[in-house]
Amino acid sequence: MAIYNGRLSQIDQSEVKRYAGIRKGGEQEFPESYVKEACMEVQLAAVPKGIYQWYDYDAACHTVLSNPPLTLEGTSIQKHLEKSTRVCVLGVTIGEGVEQRSSQLFKEGNYTVGMLVDSAATTAVEQVADQVNALVNKEAHKLGYQTTWRFSPGYGNWPIEVQKDLAAIIHTDEIGLSVTETSMLFPRKSVTAIIGLMPENGAIGTKRGCSSCGKLDCPSRNN
Question: Which residues are paired to 52 by β-bridges?
């Protein structure tokens, strides 16, 4: 198990606009200064942390060989890991402070920045996940593995209900990340995911990101 203390030296403003649903020609509703302010609010309030754990993986049985073993349901995740012999499961969060700051802004009547803080927080947690992903890739490649892209519960037909079991084998409680009875992550701006490790030069049969999801009307979809 490895714990990672993340960093948010900057937040990708173009991604903030995408999550906020700001399309070309709509920027006049949200002046650039508002987007910058929202990013600064998140940088000040966020406590970015990550944790990841390595396990052997039985692709034939679709089972992570954790204690206890975790069998993965859903053809999407099974296909994604079909050539993997090991996996890395990870969790990241930026803490509760960002949610609290967003709520405070709404109470103060600063609705625009409050809304953009939510989008900036989503961008921020993905950036922290990218940072952990990069560490995993580096370690895996040193061991001679090719990595898949990270796949989260809810992608394709991988049930969101796996969150509790996934969090348990990652030990997300070590970074203050828990799962509610309705299978939602808390704090809300958090991510869990799995990365497959394949023999070098392995190829993945699944598409990355939004292409793996059938929700075509999602406002955050980028392809």
Answer: 2, 90
**Cis amide prior to 153 (ω within 30 degrees):** no
Give the pTM. 0.87
Query: Does position 221 have pLDDT exceeding 50, yes or no?
Result: no
Domain of 13 in residue numbering reads as 2-202
Terminal-residue alpha carbon distance, the chain: 34
CB contact set of 87 (below 8 Å; sequence gap of 6+): 54, 55, 57, 64, 81, 194, 195, 196, 197
Number of domains making up the chain: 1
**CATH number of the domain encompassing residue 106:** 3.40.109.40
**Percent of the chain at pLDDT exceeding 90:** 82
Residue written as token pair 């990652």: 170
For the stretch 164-206, pLDDT in tens is 999 999 999 999 999 999 999 999 999 999 999 999 765 665 5
Query: Is pLDDT of 213 > 60?
Result: no
Q: Is the backbone of residue 60 left (phi > 0), alpha (psi -120 to 50) or beta?
A: alpha
CB 192 within 8 A of CB 172: yes
The amino acid that residue 17 corresponds to is: K
As a whole number of angstroms, the distance between CA 128 and CA 5 comes to 9
- With beta carbons less than 8 A apart as the criterion, state whether 5 and 51 touch: no
Domain assignment of residue 72, yes or no: yes
Q: What CA–CA distance (Å, rounded) separates 172 from 59?
A: 24
- The reply to whether 11 falls in a domain is yes
